[in-house]
Amino acid sequence: MTPRAIDYLRIAVTDRCNLRCVYCMPCEGVAFRDHEEILTYEEIAFLVSVAADMGFSKIRLTGGEPLVRRGLPNLVSMIKAVPGIRDVALTTNGILLPQFAEDLRAAGLDRVNISVDTLDSDRYRRLTRGGDLRRALAGVEAAFTHHLEPVKINAVLNRETMAELPSFAALTRDRPLHARFIEWMPVGGCGPTSEAQAPVRDEVLAALSLLGDLQPAESPGGWGPARYFRLLGHQGTIGFISAVSDHFCGTCNRLRLTADGRLMSCLFSNDEIGIRAALAARDHEATAALVRESLSRKTFDRRCVEQPSRRGMSQIGG
Ligand code: SAM
Ligand code: SF4
Fold first, then answer.
1. Distance 191 CA to ligand 2 centre (A)
2. Does 182 contact ligand 1 (Cβ within 6 A)?
3. pTM above 0.85, yes or no
């Protein structure tokens, strides 16, 4: 398989979060970086400008929860002002989206993915260790109101939430909402403790096909490895991101930046390159050299998946 051009940079703007999802963060003992260790918005925007000169055109802001970092709309407008950047997206748990959606849109944010792993309030509280489902769903509404579209919901399924597949599918019926199921990934020690906890793609697909005529569909817009389907007559789609079942490493198009300024060539990899000093010095050449070095370390195979990263997902950005 021929590797695609690498044109997609995922940026974790913080490792902090207002939730503690069971598959992402341990319930205690999470060591957050101090403020001084986190890249400034100016440093991030500088990296984006160097990356854009090298052909990167798509940016996703993630975390931790990106909206807990103050002034995120400012970063969006700084990135949108970089020539060559075509699309800026946000991955969020949606809790603070009602508060920020308007400013984010005004700053130029194109779209959002919102993580909602269950549509049951008690289960949501349990899975997020204290979150309020109503607030996340209000975030979904805010995304529609402010045209941060296509609006996608991300759900990491487990055994219990498999029973909710009909409810997720129903969300895609009357409006262009796209529900994406993400396989639970064994990252940062928060992976499933047994195979039995993590439904895989084929099982989810089989269960969904019992709900109606499920046909392959075009991607609603996006640059990731998701595969899409549509139930006959539904406006929205159902997507799958299955790093474990699928073998999409060969077509990987992304590089990652951690909040503390390290480039990662793969979500699963322990291979990191510190780029902070070059960014702080606004050294274009050194920054470009480090980006090239990280790109050269991409293996485009499953070696990394088989040796998951020590970092938790909230530190890498999912
Ligand atoms: N806080 C934001 C959110 O939850 O959308 C952004 C950061 S979160 C780390 C990004 C994505 O990673 C979310 O869609 C989340 O569901 C996913 N994620 C976190 N831990 C995961 C795991 N162990 N396996 C699969 N996906 C995971
Ligand atoms: Fe926070 Fe997102 Fe991780 Fe949940 S998945 S703990 S919302 S960073």
1. 14
2. yes
3. yes
